[in-house]
Amino acid sequence: QTDGQLKNGRDVTIAALLGAEEFAFSTAPLIAMGCIMMRKCHLNTCPVGIATQDPEHEARYHPKVEAHNIHRFLEGVRWQIAALTHALGHGSVKDLSRDDLVALTPEAAAITRLPYEPGYRTREESMQRKAG
Known about the structure:
mainly alpha, two-stranded parallel ribbon, 3% strand
């Protein structure tokens, strides 16, 4: 399980490559729903009406619109994860593993000490890997 600083599908995919099976978002969905990070949640004066029970401030928030924005954000994350998973030669995020962590440039390999794999995997190798 992982959380903290997950902002997009790339972050989730990297966490999955490192072994995470559950992912939690916090700030990114808040931003998607209109939060402007005033950091006044505890004062009951949220200017966009998210973290307040004051009717005047609460009236500024439009739950149906913001629910749609959160849905769009999470759908974008889902599509990013799917694209990266497919690019790594897998059909499911459950198939990702540390073996998929490779460096695509010599500089990245030197910094990360990951194997340098400029072409990474062709589609045929990917299919052989699944069969084997």
